[in-house]
Amino acid sequence: MPETTFVEAIAKTLATAMRADDRVIVLGEDVAEGGPYLATAGLADEFGRERVRNTPISEGAVCGVAIGAAQSGLRPVVEIMFIDFITLALDQLVNQAAKAHFMSGGQLSVPLVLRTQGGAGQRNGAQHSQSLEAWLTHVPGLKVVMPSCAADAAGLLQSAIDDPNPVVFVECKALYFRRETVPEPPEPVPIGRAKTLRPGKNLTIVALSRMVGDALEAADRLASKHGIEAEVIDPRTLVPLDLDTLAQSVKRTGRAIVAHEAVNAGGFGAELAAQLQAAAFDYLEAPIQRVGAPYTPVPVSPPLEDAYRPGAQEIEAAARVALDWGEYDAEPWEHGAIAAPQTTP
Amino acid sequence: MTPDSALDAEEAHELLRTMWRIRLFEERVGQLKRNLQVHGLIHLSIGGEGVAAAVCGQLRDDDAVYSGHRAHGHAIAKGAPINGVMAELMGRDSGLCHGVGGSMHLVDTDHGFMGATGVVGGNLPLALGTALTQHLKGTDQVTVAFFGDGAVQAGHFSESINLAALWELPLIFVCENNGMAEFTSREEHSTIERVSDVVAPYGFERTTVNGSDVPAVYDAFSRFLTEARKGKGPYLLECVTYRRRGHYEGDPEKYRDPVAEQEWAERDPLARMTERAIKQGWIDEATVNAIEREAAAEIEAAVAGARESPFPDPEIARSLVYA
Q1: In what order do the strands lie in the sheet with B113-116?
Q2: Chain B residue nearest residue A142, CA to CA
Q3: Which residues in chain B are closer than 8 Å to A23, comparing Cβ atoms?
């Protein structure tokens, strides 16, 4: 299979979609120049600047333009360069895109893809590093997709473009430039189907985006150090969620970790934990453990940012708590296995 | 008055018919609101019928219109059936949007009424998107975005004006400047009195007309429409109108003096248009009276029809979340 990167897979999928369907257009800040991460590199050369449209720094209007175009017959893929800037587009996304089909009694539909990227790790500071996907999952009418590898990104992006609904496609900047294999042509990945990356019988780890790799690393360590077999599942789509696949796994293993890079408080892990406990309560041997970022903005200073970002170590520690549940006579954090839970102000 | 208006008898007749349908519809909705038979926040357009009629009356079904929270008149003028609009306001299944949209979210795609939005200024970027589609497809269709002077201070307005000018979209911005942003006068919101002055630096054509002078609105819009049909744009038509009612039905209007009847008589677009049309010989009084009677009958039939329509099946809400 040919080697590529996440961003190359995105650019290639966009080009394929634009070749196949002249309703597909790409718009956003600097997209005709390829953008800061080159996710749209080469598109303007092939398709011209009418279909690959640079826009002013007007996230609200640009998102609205894409919605208006989508409900008028085009298939726009709009880029919001950093998910932090989605704050400026939320009125259009939440009040217009998500509700157009509903409010019009089914007359309108909004086949829109909004690509954006989040995540910390590049010393970009508190306004260019956030993971805000949970906000979007709270709005009925939006679909939210969060691929963890280049092959899934390619397959899901094509599905998102084909979907008659607004799909928010959340990429992760930390995944952009790894060498990965992607089949040619890419395999289609339907929206709403989770993927089990590693089978296991002792514990289920549900991880999102970058944390999928960390979950696999933690699973390897648990296996080699303790002989624990952790099952690792990537939901890939947050809305709609493939709860069946997750719940079936948890019913078999009896223990679950949910892991993402976003702040734990109000994060999508809370929704995952709530849905899993409702679906598999009788099978649980321990409370579902959440792994996420602490309740602070993202700091720049390298040691602080490194400490901020959850990873394999935190997943492994949470796994120890879940596995040893009931064997402690004191709270688990008193043994140093896991940080004490923070209260949200 | 514009003595050299391009209007003819047939068009004047049609304008009066549309204006009467909107006027009587709005008055009836005001009554129904007091009886709690229409639902939610209701914003009436009495005083603005002339703009809706003169603008939408010149458009085709395949032209797009976007409106805001004060949308009934625009929808009716664009061709939305009155029984569908009335049933929508009454929350019935036979409403344009099966009763799930309501007064502020009317949509009738069959007639190019692409939507109304309750978030002030939020419709403007959407209108750009439809105009971009028309531009890329190279059609002679145009898009019209209605908004009030209150929307001009919203961020979406500046972003949209800049983008429409930059991309030269076939879009006509129609501002109904009634001098009131909700409860507050324009002077308290901006140092710029005329909306056409706000967009001056962008260099596209713009004009301000008296929104109560229907032939003037008609002629100014006609000029812009001819150019927009060739793919040119954008344009901005500012119509200075009068909001006869409060911001919403039930608004105690403590922020302004009761309207002097004399002032209203001078600004009432329907009274002025009727007088003008009779004077020009476009229509006679008996025909105007017949138009009024027909409109009243149509509206009563719409109310009766809506009352017979069931409320939507609760399951419809779940089924409409995704396409």
Answers
A1: B113-116, B64-67, B143-148, B171-177, B235-240, B206-210
A2: B322
A3: none
